[in-house]
Amino acid sequence: MDKLRLTGLSFFGHHGALEAERELGQRLELDVELHGDFRGCASEDSLREALDYTKAYDLVKKVVERRSFELLEALAAAVAKELLARFPVENVVVRVRKPNVPFSASLSNVEVEIERRRER
Q: What is the pTM of this model?
């Protein structure tokens, strides 16, 4: 299975279990992997045959910035669902990181990773 990765995406969204997080918003980071068979575009060397990663980026941005979720898991699942619905891929991995956790802790971030497959 071939993979296309978009890493280090950064968006401002209104997500979190705490009301203040949803009200004030915060920066979130995402990585997305799209798995599929990319032999066609590779052999043709044609953008027309390729998965347009600028459209994938725009779709992720829309989900993160226009919706609100309490859980990072729900946000990641929504991103995966939209990507599977819009692109001819078999599998999607989405990682969501919250760099500024709202409690006193010594850690760089909290991260959730989900993987979803196209239903047959």
A: 0.91
